[in-house]
Each structure stands twice: as structure tokens, then as C-alpha cells.
DNA sequence: CTGAAAGCGCTTACAG
DNA sequence: CTGAAAGCGCTTACAG
């Protein structure tokens, strides 16, 4: 049955008839043991409860199931708290490879992954580890940030602020650096208090809004490092009777589903998370299925696009 | 190593020393083959991209990893489109059991699951199949609906509408039936056009809002079968310059993260999805680990609670 | 092209 | 309490 084309037609028919008759189902545990393949890969999320990852999972799962592979899921917290080692998934033959969506792994864990016997089959998606040499798939964070700042600039904003993601997060860092860089390119002023620290969450967006309200000299537009930040920011402003985009324009990054339905709907930078998942899965599968081939596509950077909605508008100079 | 307590201490030490020295890792494929257990369970979602399920997954995953089990994920669409059979996961020894979060499976698929050799290890969570005999875990849909209607009634609303979930969905049906029933109990009027068909999505909420706007005699409060519906409903009303709760009170069901941050924040019926996931996993594991024991807890119904926020208020009679 | 044998790495029962 | 043997159900190489 593994190689149906090398036997005669009559034998093939007899075999397939017998399969139907007896209801034979292959036993994957036996096959996995014999082939030394788990025929499954592990996807590691920072936090299973975060809906941001749903679409990426969908993309990964689609690709894997088309190749007959299963998708195992774990979250960083759990692996740590349960005392399991991440590298065990590879070493104990539970998974043939790993897609890691968490760039915030402990240095110690990263080290153990780097020297794992199956280190070649570890790939980062969305986030990545600065300094480590794992292949990765990510969005155009810099270009997306430039698009955001340019959009606000083209609306007439000259005082633009930024709410960052969590300190030490690679995405947050990349977006913040690109933000500062683009402001310089456009020769826009940047006061240090216009950069407000956050952490990608709704709650952090609320706190950032309070910081914005407390400023003497407020930016007329704010680029948030995630949509959730932006949504929380807008919500808190609204509670203090500030209107978006009338008093301040607000942008996010990600374009999650809710952004379109929020009031006001949110201008954002769209990442195609489904495609990101599919790309990650296909890159990893390529390595697993042809382990000897030298593969050159080490980092895939996927395009993002500006989605203009109601939360950004020309600055309302009289009010600011 | 499977039974460390039946050997002498000295032997035990020698074994564990050797394990450390050689870096021995158990091969799970071999263990799975020998024990005839996959040590993993499959979670089937209707749609991986739907963030509603994230917290349930987190709950399931926590419980499973505490028992040394892995979590496999698939979505109904994919299983169908890839031509795989759902029942194969059980039959080919990939999974020891299944938690199904989709009550909308084809009758044919349900039938194949019912006569599966491992049918005892299939459990429904959140949704369920009317007429089938699988164990299930669900929230108090009826009681939650009663709490919602009572809340609106106690605010003074006498004309209460409902936006339903998808036709044929068990949750939608349960909530709609309970809604009609509670209105009768409270002796409230119910016009047939006050029940608006939806499908749990943001987009359906928008369409339902248009239907509400088009009514001659509008309900002063609307109970939506999901938070996403309610959020879409509010968004669309806002685009037509209707204010919630001033022109109409709106409630949801689920209490998803965004509901707290929406403008206005959403009054809802809270389901503890994390706990639901943990309960489902624990019920299933009990069956898997003691297959001979007769287990009586066939259906677990978990409590829900009313969360009052800004989207509901006393009716504004002059405006309606 | 076909059939029988070996072996993947465990666990379990059994003999000593 | 300890050690050696059998076997889970496949796949792969090998002999016919």
C-alpha cells in the first residue's frame, strides 16, 4: 500500500478490495515508529487565549492537513509550568518540527533548541529571536510602520505619537525603530513623551490614553503598535469625552476582525495572517521532507497593506 | 522506568544516572504502539479562525498537558475538504478521544462517529447534537437567557427583541426558545418581527440593526444571541446615528474580551470558557483512563452570570 | 513482481 | 527483585 504502483494491477485490486472488506485502517503509531517520523508538527503560541493567532493557526493547519500531517498545539506558559521541556517534543518523537510564534522565549530555552538534534526543523513565524539563526516568516514591520506614518503625514499631521508594544518584544522594537526612523525622514518633530510604552493589549491602550490626556503638548495623531492597543486607546478616550478622529487620529497594526466594526472603525496595517501561517508551514515541510537539500530561503518577509477607515482624519488644529 | 517503585533503590539510582548520562529520551511512537494509546486527543473546531474558541482551547490544553497528553487540533471544514474522515483520527490511533466544539456536523458524520469503535471517547463541548447520545459540557443557555431578559425587564423594558444565532444551531435554538418562554413568563408582548435572524457574526449584527431601524414599532431593548452580534448591531446603529443605550438597550451572550472595551461597553452573559475547556478535558480523560468504569455524569451544565455594563439602561420612552 | 523476514523502541508478562 | 523474551503494526530490504 505504500507503493501501489510497483505491483501488478490484479494484486493492487485484491489488496484494495480486502481493505474495503475488512475496514482496514492504518495504525499511525506503528507507521510512525517504523518510519521514525511523527507526521505531526508542534505549533507553540505565547498564549492560547489570545485570538490574534487564530488565523495563523488556520493557515498552518490547512497546509499541514494537505500534506497528511497533524497539528499539535502548546503554549509557552504551559510548557514551562508543566515542567516539560520544549525540546522534548522533538526529542521524544512527538513532532517532526516546530513552528514557534513566540519571540520571547528564555535565552536558556533558545539555547536548548539551538543544540537540539532536530534544530533544523524549528521555524519562527510572526516573531523571531534576534541573534539566533532559525529560519523565520514575518510581516513587513518596517514597511508597515512607514506606511502608517506616511498616511498620517499625508493627512496633514505634523505631531505624531506612538504607543509601543511590550519592551523586549521584537515586533514592538522593529515598529518603534521604524517609527522613529520615518519621523526623521519626514523631518517631523518627536518629543520623547510622545512615545508611550504599552504591551499590545486593550488594557495597555487604555493606560496609554490616560498618558496622552495628561500631556501638555499632545500629538494630533497616534500610531499604536497593535489594533488592540488602538481599540483600548480609543475606548478610554471616549470615556473622557475625547472623540476619534476629531480630537486625535488613531491607527493600529494587524487589522484584526474587530477593527472594521469598531466605532469608529480603525485605520490599520493589514497582515495576511492566513498566508503567514501557510507560508510558515510550507517552509517547514520543505525542510522536513527534504532534509538533505540546502534551502536558501531563510527569512520570508510578507507584504502588509494600509487599510484606511474612520479613525484617521486631517488634524483639527483649533482643538489641539 | 514505568514502575520505579517496584525496584530497589540502588537499581533505581543506577537507571536514573544512566538516563542523565546518556540523555535518554523516551520514544513516544514506540510507547504509543506498545500501549495502544496515542496519548493525545483531538479537538475539533467548526472554524479555527474564530477567536471565540481560544479560551476553551486554553482550558483543554491546560488539563491535558497536566496529564501528559498532547492536543491535536483540526477544523470541521478542513477535515471535510481534505477528504479525511473524522473517525479516522480515532481509528488510526492518532487520538484516544475527541472533543467536538461543533454541533453542526452532517448527520452522516454523526452516524459514523456513533458506530466508531472508540465512540465512548467522543465528547461535545459548548455545542452538542440533539438526538445523539454523546456526553457533553455546555453552559446554562436557558438560565443565561432568562437572566438577560429579566435584566432588561427590571430596567423597565416592556418591548424586548431578539437577534438569533444561525438557524439549526443548537445554542441559537436553545437561547431563542428560552427567550420566547421567558417573555411569556413575564407576560411581555412579543411581535414576530421583533425576532431577527442572525448567525453569531459581527456582519449579521449589522444587518439585524438595519432590520431594527426599518421597524415601525421598535423594541426598546434587544437581546443578541452572541456578543459579536451585539457589537455589530451597535456599530451599525451608530452609523445611522442611533445611540446605545439611549435609543435602544443592547445585550450580548458570551462576554468576550472586546465587550468590556467596546463603546459603549457591552452588557452580557458571561460564560467561563476556560473552565468549560477544563471540564470537557477532565470528563474525557476520566473515560479514557478508566474505560470500564460506568460514568454517570453524562452532561455537565456550567453556570453563567450577568455582567452589567453601559449598553443597557432604562428605556427612553420619549424617543421610542 | 511477490512473499517472508527483520526491526523501529517501547511495555508487559514471565522465568529465575 | 532482576533480566530476557515476546510483540504492538507497520516499512523496508532481500530472496525467490
List keywords for this structure.
homodimer, 12 strands, 15% strand, 12 helices, alpha/beta, 320 residues, 3 domains
Characterization of this structure:
Two copies of one chain form a homodimer. Chain A has 320 residues and is an alpha/beta fold. The first copy, chain A, has three domains: 32 residues, no CATH class; 135 residues, Rossmann fold; 145 residues, Rossmann fold, CATH 3.40.50.2300. Helices cover 41% and strands 15% of the residues of chain A. In chain A, strand 8, helix 10 and strand 9 form a beta-alpha-beta unit. The first copy, chain A, is elongated and about 80 Å long. The model of chain A has no long low-confidence stretch (mean pLDDT 93). Chains A and B meet through helix 2, helix 3, strand 2, helix 9 and helix 10 of A and helix 2, helix 3, strand 2, helix 9 and helix 10 of B. The first copy, chain A, binds a DNA duplex (16 and 16 nucleotides) through helix 2.
